[in-house]
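Re-run with default settings, no changes from the original entry. Doing this only to confirm the output is reproducible before filing.
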Amino acid sequence: MNTVSLPVLLMAAVCFYVGLYYLVMFVRLKNQKENLFFALTCLSIGLYDVFCAGLYGARSVDEGMSWQRLQFASLCLFSVSIAWFVYYFTRYHSRRLFVLSTIWFFILFTAGMTIRGMLTLSAGRPSIKHVSFADLARVSYFEATPGPLYTLQYASMIALSVFLMVLLIRHFSGTGGRHLRPTLIAFAIFFLSAINDAMVGAAVYSGLYILEYAYLLIILSMSYGLLNTFVDLHNEVGELNATLEKRVGEKTIDIFFRDVGMKLCAQTLADLSPSQRTVRGTGTMKRLVEGGSRGIAAMSRDITVLSNPDELLRRIVERAVEISGSVAGRLYLAVEKGAPAILAEFRSPGESLKVSERLVREAAKRENNETGKDAKSPGPHGHEKYIPIRGRGGCIGVMYLRKVKDGGDFEENDVYLLRAFLEATSIAVENALLYLTVKETIRPVRKTIITPVVEEKIKRALVYIAENFTSDISREGLAASLSMHPDSLGRFFRLYTGKKISEYINELRIGKVAADLRNGDESIVQIAFSAGFESIATFNRAFFKVMKTTPTDYRERLVNER
């Protein structure tokens, strides 16, 4: 076998492998026709490579003519396959030109395989070519000069290549797809290679046939384009699932509160005698919490409810504010010492919250001390109320509520309804807090699935963020500097730190804001902008999420402590 044939056979093996791979993919995903025609394109060019190897090994014009004829036949199949691939890949609006081109190349295929003589190939018109590589190697092509029919096929292939190039350029311009650029470059090189082979075959000049090598670029670029299309689709599905999961979570929480409200209303109406409410409350709440196969206790363990703890707790405070006719409310985690942590809050526009942390701790202590519990203690003022929330092991939190000063005090009915509502939702609160605790516990275990190479890149990202968090840091720019895909960086960053990149940056910024509020006298707006925040709304949300209080309340507390 001629040594020049070996690289061509290697190209053929690559083409057959890629073709079979995408053929199997089409069998699994039959609605993606571009996979089928890309597979047929690879298989047809693989056949062309095999026939090229046969031509390069031929030692007579007659033998070479047999391989030439098979070459032209395989190029017809290739032209049809690549045309339909581009049609499905670009989602072109009309099939007519592609159907006509398929019919035309089928005619050329049939004519080329059946007609002999001067119209196709003739031994009477030999075209033996000898090409040297800088005196290092010598290649001989024992060919016949293509007749008018094959010359017409050459022209048809060049015209089709121009048309497909135009379609790809228009598709690239319309979608702006970054993954199409390599395909355009590969098609341009392949187009020039086809012109070169046509000129060499017509003996216009002496040179090498390079079409079989140029097709390797088509394989690489098209595989890249199809892979990116799959990745984009995967990302879209992921975003759709995330949106759907969020909506399902919100709807499930809505259903949870609807059940609480319906059962609460029914049981409250059943307690007709106000004097019996305190006595009958325990039985009422027990039935309320445990009633039904899909009761409140069951829904409180629903993973969809638990996986949205922030929204669940915020909605509990919002409903408590609505039930009592308050203007502001805040939910605290019960602690005996230190500043109680804020779990959630809700307040009407323009309302501020100044809560006594001492009274929060006293309310939690009173609930845990059964002998000293005062269920009807109104708080320091009649328009404020500190209501402990009792869980299965004692007090788990305290709800603070405030009415407008001149809007009336909390009445007995208000307190009764609030206690009933909080008792009904206490299981959900307790389960949500347990979910958060378990989630924090398993996070370090997840780091073990990160490879040392990826871990090193994440550490570099952490260093960069620590040095530049007051500047605008984009996930895409950070990923590019680490030679990672943005989605991969985001996924591994969250596995390693337990936080999204944006959340991590915001926490560093809030840390700087807290230090500036503690040590400086600048306005909150100036401090927020100097920390890297671009809007006050984003800053307020981030500050409350991290510090569990508002910037104004935080500064006022610092002033009071001085």
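DSSP finds 20 helices and six strands in the chain. Confidence is low (pLDDT under 50) at residues 272-304, 370-378.
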